[in-house]
Amino acid sequence: MQRHMQRPDSSELTVLSAVAAAERIRTGQLKSERLVQECLNRIQETDSEIAAWEWFDPDLALKQARELDRIRWFGRPVGALHGVPVGIKDIVDTRGIPTERGTPACRGRIPRREAFLVDRLRDAGAVILGKTVTTELAFMQPSRTVNPHDTARSPGGSSSGSAAAVAAFQVPFTIGTQTNGSVIRPASFCGVFGFKPSRGLISRTGVLRTSQTLDQIGMFARDLEDVAALADAMAACDSSDPATLARPRPSMLAGCRSEPPVEPMLAWMGATYHQELQDDARQGLEDVVALLSPRVEKLPAPVDFDLLLDAHRTIQNYEIGRNLKQLKDAHGELMSRQILGAIDEGLGIDRKTYRNALRKMSAAQEYFAKFFMDFDAIIAPAALGDAPQLASGTGNPVCSTIWTLCGLPCLSLPLLISADGLPIGVQIIGAPERDDRLLRTARWILTSLAVETVTV
Question: Which of 233, 234, 225 is nearest to 255 (CA)?
Answer without folding.
Answer: 225
